[in-house]
Amino acid sequence: MLQLDASPVTGRRGSVINFASLLTFQGGLTVPAYAASKGAVGQLTKSFANEWTARGVTVNAVAPGYIETDMNTALLNDPERLASISARIPAGRWGSPEDFKGTAVYLASKASAYVSGHVLVVDGGWMGR
């Protein structure tokens, strides 16, 4: 088995960053398979963290809220659904891919050396409601 030394930059051997979703925590509408798969990502993150953290590898996940991407074109083009979703986001806007740069850097950096098994929600405040 390959043995890796801890990085002098991060203080650990590695960082795994999975991408979950708000549907890791909520059932969603009309997307049961997607919600189930994202719930699985959350549990997989925790399970791997339980096994790998002691070996110097942190395992975390990012759970995005509603993000303006091609995946959400149907929602963005449905005026009623867009209004209902947007009204619930305290930040007053949908997220963009740019909103994840700092989160990913944090989870891969030395600053998060003691963070493992966490699903970090980046959602403009959606889950706080």
TrEMBL record:
One of its GO terms (molecular function) is oxidoreductase activity, acting on the CH-OH group of donors, NAD or NADP as acceptor. PROSITE patterns: ADH_SHORT. Pfam families: adh_short_C2 (PF13561). It comes from the Eukaryota. InterPro entries: NAD(P)-bd_dom_sf (IPR036291), Sc_DH/Rdtase_CS (IPR020904), SDR_fam (IPR002347). The keyword NADP applies. Keywords: NADP, Oxidoreductase. Belongs to the short-chain dehydrogenases/reductases (SDR) family. This is 2-deoxy-D-gluconate 3-dehydrogenase. It comes from Chaetomidium leptoderma.
